[in-house]
Amino acid sequence: xxxxxxxxxxxxxxxxxxxxxxxxxxxxxxxxxxxxxxxxxxxxxxxxxxxxxxxxxxxxxxxxxxxxxxxxxxxxxxxxxxxxxxxxxxxxxxxxxxxxxxxxxxxxxxxxxxxxxxxxxxxxxxxxxxxxxxxxxxxxxxxxxxxxxxxxxxxxxxxxxxxxxxxxxxxxxxxxxxxxxxxxxxxxxxxxxxxxxxxxxxxxxxxxxxxxxxxxxxxxxxxxxxxxxxxxxxxxxxxxxxxxxxxxxxxxxxxxxxxxxxxxxxxxxxxxxxxxxxxxxxxxxxxxxxxxxxxxxxxxxx
Amino acid sequence: xxxxxxxxxxxxxxxxxxxxxxxxxxxxxxxxxxxxxxxxxxxxxxxxxxxxxxxxxxxxxxxxxxxxxxxxxxxxxxxxxxxxxxxxxxxxxxxxxxxxxxxxxxxxxxxxxxxxxxxxxxxxxxxxxxxxxxxxxxxxxxxxxxxxxxxxxxxxxxxxxxxxxxxxxxxxxxxxxxxxxxxxxxxxxxxxxxxxxxxxxxxxxxxxxxxxxxxxxxxxxxxxxxxxx
Lengths: 302, 229
Ligand SMILES: Nc1ncnc2c1ncn2[C@@H]1O[C@H](COP(=O)(O)OP(=O)(O)O)[C@@H](O)[C@H]1O
Ligand SMILES: [Mg+2]
What we know:
The structure holds two protein chains of two kinds. Chain A is α+β, with helices and mostly antiparallel strands. Chain A has helices spanning 2-18, 21-57, 70-80, 94-104, 109-117, 137-145, 159-204, 206-214, 219-257, 259-299; strands at 60-64, 86-92, 126-131, 153-157. Chain A folds into two domains: 2-54 and 165-299, no CATH class; 66-151, Alpha-Beta Plaits (2-Layer Sandwich), CATH 3.30.70. Chain B has seven helices and ten strands. Chains A and B meet through α1, α8 and α9 of A and α2 and α3 of B. Magnesium ion binds next to α1 of chain B.
């Protein structure tokens, strides 16, 4: 058993490097289809990390009319906190709103000048509410709109975030669908090419196979070199794909998703790389084995 | 050792059916030396292929040591093949392997341990008289020597039976006779030999059992046979 494996593995490697440019073709196309699936995985992970990042920033801001007493807001807050959908609720007073606004615009002197020109603080006090689940903002907003406080509320601000999330999600969906279509397409091409390369190997080893059969080599012994050949193509392709993927992620992601999330995304990735590599390895081997089994079934008379 | 009972073999199907063998009956005992003779197309190769189970009979039974090999499974086939050594007109040596490697290949692919291979191969090459050509490639040696290398490969499993299909077909008379003497020597050492040939001089000089085939039928079976068609 061990002898069979080691000898046929060696034969598989010989097939691999004696095939020269044919091996290169098989590996390239396998690499391409692995890269496609990896990019889909990367984008999905990126999107999910980005989404989580956005979701952490999301809240509902309930702005109160400027003449509302603070005790009312405190009541409102404690009532809101009783909803099971609500994670937290913070009161932002007019003064705090102003200082936050100034801090956010510290590099825009015209805006600062404009706000200082107004004598009274023009900003409204608000209660910032975070939901347990971003899906629940609708429910929360609705119940606030119909609460006893609606007379005191100037505006409820949450809709634009929902749009952003929806757009984010639908973009991801499109990318994923096109990606999976491309992956299947390139996988089929990869299988076809690898199949033909292995078929060539089988033809080139006609005499050898004939002799093996005549001297009583087991069927597995005859088959295995070609199976290993397929596995080698897949494994080499997976290694090349991961090597190409690392710089792609490091260099390209900042341009795609904008610098705001880069840190979040890239720290997330190092942990995912091992997983991505394992998936590539698994898929690469799978594609290689499928190709070789097809070629063996069709062209290896045993 | 080998028994053919009412064996019939046809090739092709439908309108293109061709009968290669019909109503074949014979027995070959252990340690016999049997020559099948006949014109080209008489069915010699087909009989040999049936013995090493490269082909299956259309009807009839083929017993090898009492077991019917016409129904052998593809899983059992390799084990059947290891009991038989095969030699052909075109030697079937691998051009990129040396004589030693060609012989060792037969053992490697059947899963023999390396130590046993290192012991057996030189012994067999000594028997066929190629000890001094172990490191040569097939194109560097004569046709007769190539055929000896092929015989060494056939023998290295120590099979009970050697099947030789026109082994001298590509050789000059002197080399041819050398190969036949080697087969006779192997037979004397206890291996059954089944030879197919249409070389009249060889058959007449061997003076062993001759089974004559004509158009797929056995027409003569003489224990000290001569070539006569
Ligand atoms: N694979 C095959 N397909 C079709 N016909 C074949 C095949 N092999 C042999 N035959 C036919 O069977 C007959 C016997 O052939 P063969 O056994 O090779 O004869 P010999 O070896 O005596 O020359 C011939 O008529 C040949 O044409
Ligand atoms: Mg013939």
